Amino acid sequence: MAISKKIAESMKSSSWIRAMFEVGEGLKRLYGEENIFDFTLGNPVIEPPEALKKELIRIVSSNVKGMHRYMSNSGYEEVREDISKFHKENTGLAFTKDHIIMTVGAAGGINVVLKALLDPGDEVIVPCPFFIEFKFYIENHGGVIILVDTREDFHLDIDNIEKAINKKTKAIIINSPHNPTGIVYNEKELKELASLLMEKRKKGQRIFIISDEAYKKIIYDGISFPNFFHIYEDTIVVTSHSKDLALPGERIGYIAISPLIKNAQALIDAAIFANRTLGFINAPAIMQRLVGKFQKNSVDIMDYQKRRDMIYEILIESGFEVMKPMGAFYIFPKSPIPDDIKFVRTLQKHHILAVPGVGFGKQGYFRLAYCVDLDMIERSRKYFNEVGNAVKRES
Amino acid sequence: MIVSKKMKKLILDQEGWTRKMFEEGLRMKKTLGEDKVYDFSLGNPDVEPPPAVLKALVDMLTDRTPGMHRYMENNGYESVRKEIAEYLKTYYGLHFTSKHVFMSVGCAGGINVLLKAMLNRGDEVIVPNPFFWEFKNYIENYGGVVRFVDTKEDFQLDIEKVEEAINDKTKAVLLNSPNNPTGIVYSETNLKELAGLLYNKRKDGKEIYIISDDAYKKIVYNNIKLPNLFTIYDLVISVTSHSKDLALPGERIGYIAISPNIEEIDLLVSGLIISIRALGFVNAPAIFQRVAGKFQDNSVNIRDYQEKRDLMYNTLIEAGFECVKPMGAFYMFPKSPIKNELEFVMQLQREERILVVPGRGFGKSGYFRIAYCVPIGKIYGAIDGFKKIGKRYIKKG
């Protein structure tokens, strides 16, 4: 066989995704693209900020020699300098360019961090529901994923986390704002988590927090985002500019290693080595130059907040039970029936495409990605109402 | 310990000579001045992308069509893959279609994605020695085992040794031609012998793939022809990049080309899609995909490289070195005049301010690698140094 057994298994276990995708494509052909409401993909329709587009053209037209060549594996010094200044200002901590490693998106960055940290059999705790790719990332490098259920409101269950920690625990991956729930963890629960981990540290076990902050700038209603660097020393932040600058296809992000980490140099060296040997080599050159200057910028959050408000309103008026998202562009309502795959099929009959909760490790829910045209959300209202009514009739 | 044991060992064992020399070189350049140091340690050509490429890039970014920077299919834009398939069809004479092309984050990214998709833990990959050191890391990333096979004196494949190395665990042979570090191009006869051997193994039910790292495929010198591997063997997967032909190494753009003769194509593509996602590449950078699609026919200015090769080669021969004449790429791999090439390389650096990489960085002690993709003035500047050190080490015997 051309492919490995493990990959073949992954294909089999995710075959329902493919099947669902194909049903969706079939529906689009049958009824026309505009009559199918596709909420399955986290691929924002929002364009990068105008100033960024201009700067990109300026950079590529400048014809500076050597602009497209290799640079050091960690990225351009001046770009890392810019980004470290941003973090220094934000946190008051002694960030230098050495704490920043430019990566091929957050996905690339997390792989690099895990490759640097994990020995075979090491465990990584992930609160559930979770972004399913984390499982791949951890297993790529011989790690074991340990899923820990969150509470009803999707906030961290510190007791559950404590129970999951053992001698093999190397790290915990936190993703806030969260995919798929849209939750933003508050300062209180993060401090509880930190003190739990610090207790373990006193007993000689070092557990890292890997904070996936891909959605950090997409936060609603003025909610504040607690800064991990202040809460816990052994923190590694991984982020990308896929969402805040709307550049997902260009694969640009970075790793920020806390200046408070002891022996950080060994970790930095390992991450640079992993970046090279996993075949990333370096983050795409011109995108590095571009994002260094745009650390404070973001797409207009109000664009997303309008969408959040509309989809939330539609779901509530249609009778769904759902947590109001505080950030990111996902919403994770309860399925009216326990079998979420079956319910997603029902949604399909009403022209709505969603992802069942099992795709995020949590049965009985479904995920809608509302980073779509506002007009499409409005047009979907009628269909969500219909589904709501049908559910009521049946129960 | 802050990093994994595996990682610590990797870093200690093999923190690439290339990088070490690079840093030593930087130090020398700072203290002595850039013009006093002759750095042949890095394969980072000082060429610029063709003006047409830069113009196309600006045009694409000026285009107001929305969605240019969004995610696309994990294997890349269909339209770009079509353009590349058309080129491959003409170039190799086989029926490539868009599904045989898989866009990747450079050649290094492509090989990693491919190995992840193909290797079971313990599967073996045969790599002719000397070799590009990163291959070892790439294979071991996925639990694979590297099986090194020494090449012949002239660096061509030693088919008997390849045969001895094949066993039940053998999944692939990883070739790199034109070769880093030797500059060799495997001859058609040589590759046909290899194919014959692998077809023979097929009769015993053993499917062995050839993974061909074609990063230097357009840098082949006059009078040499790069054999068409796709017509020599059926289970061929080529991985290439536009780091060299379009001079875009920092932008990380390349692709995997799967032979139309591979019947399990759909399975392989699905496996590659999972791998590119799982490893976090997700997709090749969007705008450079579009650029790459338009410039498949682009060639490298061979004349400049050839001039540099000739000057460097003649210098070495006159200085008394023994060296196989490179047929492509921009490397050469002369014999060290003393057995311990590390000591020789250090002398060369200290006494003549010439930076090269010791052969052990490519799995072969007793040799050293010269990367001559530098301004030609640097080669002229180093002639005296090579001659002096040649006199001292070789002429005395």
CATH superfamily assignment of the largest domain in chain B?
Type I PLP-dependent aspartate aminotransferase-like (Major domain)
Q: What general outline of chain B do the C-alpha atoms trace?
A: globular
Under CATH, the topology of the largest domain in chain A can be stated as Aspartate Aminotransferase, domain 2
> H/E element string of chain B?
HHEHHEHEHEHEHEHEEHHHEHEEEH
What is the total domain count of chain A? 2
Number of H- or I-type helical stretches of chain A:
14
Please bin the fraction of helical residues of chain B. Answer: 40-55%
Distance between the termini of chain B: 49 Å
**Could you give a short account of the major beta sheet of chain B?**
7 strands, mixed
Quote the average pLDDT of chain A.
Answer: 94
How many domains, in number, for the residues of chain B? 2
CATH architecture of the largest domain in chain B: 3-Layer(aba) Sandwich
Residue fraction in strands of chain B: 5-15%
Query: Mind telling me the CATH class of the largest domain in chain A?
Result: Alpha Beta
Radius of gyration of chain A from the CA trace?
21 Å
- Low-confidence stretches of chain A are none
What layout of secondary structure does this protein have?
The complex is a heterodimer of chains A (395) and B (397).
Chain A: H1 5-13, H2 15-31, E1 37-38, H3 50-61, H4 77-91, E2 100-103, H5 105-117, E3 123-128, H6 133-140, E4 144-149, H7 158-164, E5 169-175, H8 187-202, E6 208-212, H9 228-231, E7 235-240, E8 253-257, H10 264-277, H11 285-292, H12 301-317, E9 330-331, H13 340-349, E10 352-353, E11 355-356, E12 366-369, H14 374-394
Parallel strand pairs in A: 1-10, 3-4, 3-5, 5-6, 6-7
Antiparallel strand pairs in A: 2-8, 7-8, 9-12, 11-12
Helix pairs in contact in A: 3-11, 4-11, 5-10, 12-14
Chain B: H1 5-14, H2 17-32, E1 38-39, H3 51-62, H4 78-92, E2 101-104, H5 106-118, E3 124-129, H6 134-141, E4 145-150, H7 159-165, E5 170-176, H8 188-203, E6 209-213, H9 229-232, E7 236-241, E8 254-258, H10 265-278, H11 286-294, H12 302-318, E9 331-332, H13 341-352, E10 354-355, E11 357-358, E12 368-371, H14 376-395
Parallel strand pairs in B: 1-10, 3-4, 3-5, 5-6, 6-7
Antiparallel strand pairs in B: 2-8, 7-8, 9-12, 11-12
